[in-house]
Amino acid sequence: MYRRLLVFIVFIFFCLLLSPAIALAGGLADRVQEHQLENGLTVLLVERHSSPTVAAYISFRVGAVNEDSQQRGIAHMLEHMLFKGTTTLGTRDFEAELPLLQQIEEAGAKIDHLRRQADVDTDELERLRARLHQLQFEHRELVVKDEFSRIYAEQGGVGFNAFTSKDQTSYLINLPANKLELWAAIESDRLRNAVFREFFTERDVVQEERRRAVDINPGGKLYENMLATAFQVHPYRHPILGWDSDIQGFSLPAMREFFADYYAPVNMIITLVGAFQSADALALIEHYFGDLPSGVKVPAVTDREPKQRGERRIHVNFDAQPRMMVAYHKPTVPHPDDYAFDLLATALSHGRTSRLYQALVVEQQLVTDVGVFRAPGSRYDNLLVFSLLPRRDVALKDVKTALEAELQRLLSEPLTAEEIDKARRQITTSLLRGMRTNSGLARMLSTYQIIGDWQYLIEYEDRLDAVNPADITRIVTTYLHKDNRTLATLSRGGEQ
Fold first, then answer.
1. The CATH number of the domain covering residues in 312-491
2. Which of the two ends of the chain, N or C, has the fewest CB atoms closer than 10 A to its terminal CB?
3. What pTM value is reported for the model?
């Protein structure tokens, strides 16, 4: 009796917890206000007065996918540089600072030029490095470190951050509702008067970030090599951080050009979710951002990945536990097959009762972990990736054989309607959980708007409901075959 009562209480609590999100999902079309300023800036507003806070996102339709061979990694580097301040923030005296910034840029550019020479003059290189070090030391006396962060924190802001992906770059903060004008003043100042101070030291920081995320990280190393093999033409093959040589070649003129070209209102989305009056918030945005020059739209990526006509393989020798990724090309939204892939990925790997977890982890005990996810972005056709971590002493080839058998089993034993319904509930529950917070909803709206249209969120559940077992069988047959596959493995020594 007690146990049944406890289960009932938990169920009621769970329903109450989700009810605001369910209500929001049902009325999202009415709650989201979309505006476009005369300069092309898109504004998405959602009023929520449950707490006196606001989540503010500024997103740009530019990421690693928009870089060419001369720019790889520059979108991410620019994200770092936009935390370095402006002509009024981050400096004790900009007039005194400016000549030092110019001298630092000149010395750093000479070092970069000299490093690229075949017959480098090592004495001259060391002299220039000493000169740059001295200039940077003098410059530090004029820099106010992390002033954006300090101001926001003192005014109650939390979660001040940014991220760069294949598809976008976003800057975010959660702050008290009565500090919204402070946010508008700071962020519009960043766009008007950014100063790329500490460029060469920050370039070293990014180099170290790459070392930690990729060079000494087996998962990162395998993922990077898998993408570079699966995509031979499309810029989804480019690392977000850039390759080592790309980072070493970043220059201030290229950074300024990228910033001027792409950080413009026609490529920009501001999303606010929280306790404000929409008319007041829109007027505030118009006042602080409305006079920014429109700019030019980021050019569409015209490169198209040719149809793959045979399996591709890459093996990485790395002193780490063996692991494997298997990737298949697939379409992205709004193609209807993308929704079927969401259900398939969830049914195969979400939770301990999922098909692959039960087969490969529990029953056959071949792997300790298995995941299925889409990568690396969603604006363009992407990949369905299977990630597997074998148990100790299990050969990678045995894991590959077992995965192939499970994918084949999807044809002889298709997903049942019950399995698909369960996956659908898991997806929608996760989506609703994300919508519960101001920041979660702001992030979703921004991301879907970057992909194409935030109203995908409204249509998403209906599109999932339309998927049936025959659709799952069809996408397995159409896409999950050897000729469309990239097999990436990592282990000590040669392939297993």
1. 3.30.830.10
2. N
3. 0.92
